[in-house]
């Protein structure tokens, strides 16, 4: 299982500090969330796609990972079109379904919004190596190393849990107890996995302690977690894109604030 | 006072050499939180700097407890109680952090991070070693254990032997004066055992560290150690040069489950192989694999009744996958697998289509990890699970069989214990008992002797021999040559790229 296999790629963006990637996502998301209009989301979305292609993120496998986003966004848009707040001309009325000029606009805006929010998150996280992220969270954000490294080491166990789950499944069939209802079986097996997980966690804690983890001496870091020009540019891209989308909507009068903001 | 030893300047020792540690126990004892009995009691032991000691003793003699205490990882916060004194270079082990490095038994549990280099660096970071010193140490440690891999190689792709060598490298990079090995090869196949042992030898030559190793298999470590200490319930039972201790204590150690070269466990007596026995299972052109991915194709074989078959071959050849397919747990990916009437007993011929409770009446499976197959809270309930599918009116006979199995496998006194709290040998015996409770004609075992002491090994082999003589077929996936020689009627070697060649042993 490759839950924690090192994430590596030839492009520069793979080596950008994960903390910077997350920091760039924050203004971008806020900008997209501020207004419910089609233009701001479109500007953000187009900007994102152009940026990703520009930094060389063109591999098919990477974009395949965004498939769920492309499926979920139209669904969200469709439901807003069918059930969203009615206004303007009515195109279709069928029970609860009420398609109007206004609800179509909201539907389109929602579709674009979901894409603009989820796409960069999925693509950027696909370029983040969990170990690098842990380094960044501990050294740049200064989260307690105890929790960061505990979580990182725990993540490695996920691959073992997948293996355990398959063995449990076979073992239950072999023991003659696998004929019952699927839900009941899955629940039983989940409890068994939990027991195994706790035991594995205990062993891992001992192994970490045996290597001096969580000791009295201040910890050093073998890998630097640098913040340099690439990181500044990354965050600046996020801020610029957010600003551009808001300004475009304000100038062209499509601005449609959520939560009664101006 | 810590003893000062003259340190010879070795030009090629590199950055791994450190001052070898002295271990001294004076009337030391430890009782785990919530336990009445002491794990170790009245231990007096003095190990000089640079000595290499093999620590022997029956299971439960407190060997692991001593190693964990010296590594400073005994849970004080879990309410343990200490008596006497245990000193590492004159200090309490917890104060001497980093002076002792511990390698544990389970390879899966000894890897911590995702990339080889990071994993080795982990201990150095925790000790506060400056960054510019860490990477040279990592390179030297990987070289010392013979792992020539790129630093960003994924640790999840390592074999068991490589995982243990990685753990050893992680410990060496911390430059400990004392190396503590707690059955580091118990869960490895024979190639992995030699790999790890040789890595330890090379590491000791380079670092000059003191060594304390706990292991049941004496022969593995004899070439390396210069002293053997035998622990008993009341402290040290024997102590001295390996040859002298083994000559004097060999028989007693063998009886306690230690693998002593001069006292191997006796092979079981066998009845002659019957001339003709009906076929249980037959495969032709069989492709086996997991989750739709083929591991091995074009297999032809016949499993007759009343036969012991050993399935051998290198790691990754598909032995376990084949065994699990024959046991009706994995569907064949291609080819034919047919259960004959002696096994199918009225069901259709494809074992993987049988219902779970039909399967358990026909095939008993013993998994490599006993913990995967435990379902209940007590040993007795664990066996009674197998009675659920039994026909009406059979309950009384079923309970009698449970009692008989508990006796036969020396589990009667543990009938109300939780399976997860048993020792390794007890867990193995219980997992075999669960597979036998329905009296299936076919028993499939995956590495049944992995990590077992000599006493459990002999019991297991004797029991399986008896089952075969009674008319059952036992199919074992194994790397254990002694097991093959003691038990196999037929050996099937699964070698990549070669057809299955049955070899008759009897």
The amount of helix of chain A comes to 55-70%
Classify the helix fraction of chain B into a percent range: 25-40%
Question: Main sheet of chain A, how many strands, which sense, barrel?
Answer: 2 strands, antiparallel
Please give the alpha-carbon distance between the first and last residues of chain B: 63 Å
Biggest sheet layout of chain B: 6 strands, mixed
Briefly, what CATH class of the largest domain in chain B? Alpha Beta
Look at the helices and sheets of chain A and give the structural class.
Answer: mainly alpha
CATH fold name of the largest domain in chain B, please?
A: Rossmann fold
- Pattern of helices and strands of chain A: HHHHEEHHHHH
Work out the helix count of chain B.
16
Which term fits the overall shape of chain B? globular
Q: What is the arithmetic mean of pLDDT of chain A?
A: 88
Alpha carbon gyration radius of chain A: 24 Å
Q: How much is the radius of gyration of chain B in Å?
A: 25 Å
Helical stretch tally of chain A? 9
Query: Within the largest sheet of chain A, what's the order of strands?
Result: 1-2
What's the total number of strands of chain A? 2
CATH superfamily of the largest domain in chain B: P-loop containing nucleotide triphosphate hydrolases
Notes on the protein architecture:
The complex is a heterodimer of chains A (262) and B (506). Chain A folds into two domains: 17-129 and 229-251, no CATH class; 141-210, no CATH class. The mean pLDDT of chain A is 88. Chain A has helices at residues 18-34, 38-54, 60-64, 67-83, 101-126, 130-139, 145-174, 182-210, 229-251, and strands at residues 90-94, 97-100. In chain A, strands 1-2 form a two-stranded antiparallel ribbon. The longest helix of chain A has 30 residues, at 145-174. By secondary structure, chain A is mainly alpha-helical. Chain A contains nine helices and two strands, in the order H-H-H-H-E-E-H-H-H-H-H. With 506 residues, chain B is α/β, with parallel strands linked by helices. Chain B has two domains: 24-255, Rossmann fold (3-Layer(aba) Sandwich), CATH 3.40.50.300; 279-504, P-loop containing nucleotide triphosphate hydrolases (Rossmann fold). Chain B is built from 16 helices and 18 strands. Chain B has helices at 63-70, 107-110, 116-126, 131-144, 160-172, 190-207, 218-221, 242-255, 319-326, 341-344, 356-359, 379-384, 395-408, 424-436, 454-470, 481-487; strands at 23-31, 40-47, 52-56, 81-88, 100-103, 178-182, 210-214, 227-232, 235-240, 279-290, 293-304, 308-312, 334-339, 363-366, 442-446, 473-477, 490-493, 501-504. Chain B has a six-stranded mixed beta sheet with strand order 5-6-7-3-8-9, sandwiched between helices. Chain B has a six-stranded mixed beta sheet with strand order 14-15-16-12-17-18, sandwiched between helices. A three-stranded antiparallel beta sheet of chain B has the order 2-1-4, covered by helices on one side. In chain B, helix 5 packs parallel to helix 6 (190-207). At the A-B interface, helix 7 and helix 8 of A face helix 2, helix 3, helix 4, helix 5 and helix 11 of B.
